[in-house]
Amino acid sequence: MPTEISGSTGVNKIQDNTIVNADINSSAAIAGSKLVMPTGSVLQVVQGALQDETATTSGSWVSTGLTATITPSSASNKILVSYTAPGGSSHNNSSNGTFTIFRGTVSGTNLGGSDWGYGYSNDNGVHTGCELDSPNTTSAQTYTIGMRNDAGSSTGICKGSGTNANTARATITLMEIGA
């Protein structure tokens, strides 16, 4: 039998743990704004992928084409950005290829090292990077993986050779972390 709360009984008479799951209608919806998630909770996840080989001989940062966009629900939340990019340079010991994460385009904020991003390689391999970013906004944020080469040879993402070309897959994953 439901309990009626009137001015004489008061809400303060309801004890903790007296409302259980069975008391909530199966079609009831609780607004997300009413839920309080603990600090560090993953609030949303977005992923982008690329399977087309893209290469450059540029010594300046250029886009790999690997991007993803996320819209933070609060300006105080952080975005965890991680990527895995198979690729590297053209087997030339005098040439180093490197990858980095940009907030926005490659003209935006470089979250890695300004020269070498998240490390470099003079051979093909799998490159990874991870950064916890604080964009301080609730506007949509695009993250782009950039690449550059330091000696005019070729650096590429999803780079293969012969019959293996274009079979590698690169991914970028964005996670909104509650503050």
Q: What would you note in describing this structure?
A:
- The chain is mainly β and 179 residues long.
- Helix content is 0%, strand content 41%.
- The protein is built from no helices and eleven strands.
- It has strands at 42-50, 54-56, 62-70, 78-89, 97-103, 109-110, 120-121, 124-133, 141-149, 155-157, 170-177.
- The strands form two sheets. Strands 1, 2, 4, 8, 10 and 11 form a six-stranded antiparallel β-sheet that branches. Strands 3, 5, 6, 7 and 9 form a five-stranded antiparallel β-sheet that branches.
- A hairpin with a 5-residue loop joins β5 and β6.
- It is elongated, with a radius of gyration of 24 Å.
- The model has no long low-confidence stretch (mean pLDDT 81).
Morphology call: elongated
Largest sheet: 6 strands, antiparallel
Unreliable stretches (pLDDT < 50, length at least 5) are none
Evaluate the radius of gyration: 24 Å
- How many E-type strands? 11
| Mean pLDDT across every amino acid position | 81
What helical percentage do the residues reach?
under 10%
- Termini, distance in Å? 41 Å
Give me the secondary-structure category.
Answer: mainly beta
The portion of residues forming beta strands comes to: 35-45%
